[in-house]
Design a protein that fits this description.
Number of helices: 3
Helix content: 40-55%
Structural class: mainly alpha
Shape: rod-shaped
Radius of gyration: 22 Å
Length: 74
Amino acid sequence: MPDTHVAPMLEKHTIGFVPESDRHGKVRDLFTLWFGGNLAPLPIVTGALGPSLFGLSLWWSLVAFVVGHLAGAP
């Protein structure tokens, strides 16, 4: 008699397409994961250099910060 017991797998689709029937959770559940991965101290420190090193006002520093993030994002 063949053994029909199959050990449970953590992820059976690996990096392939996941059918709708196998998906669970909500998009908002990924917020912490993406926010934590994208929050890096280097851009924050670099942004603080705007007013102190380059003599920019707060608003121009914020504009430079946003443009830099948009241009640097894939």
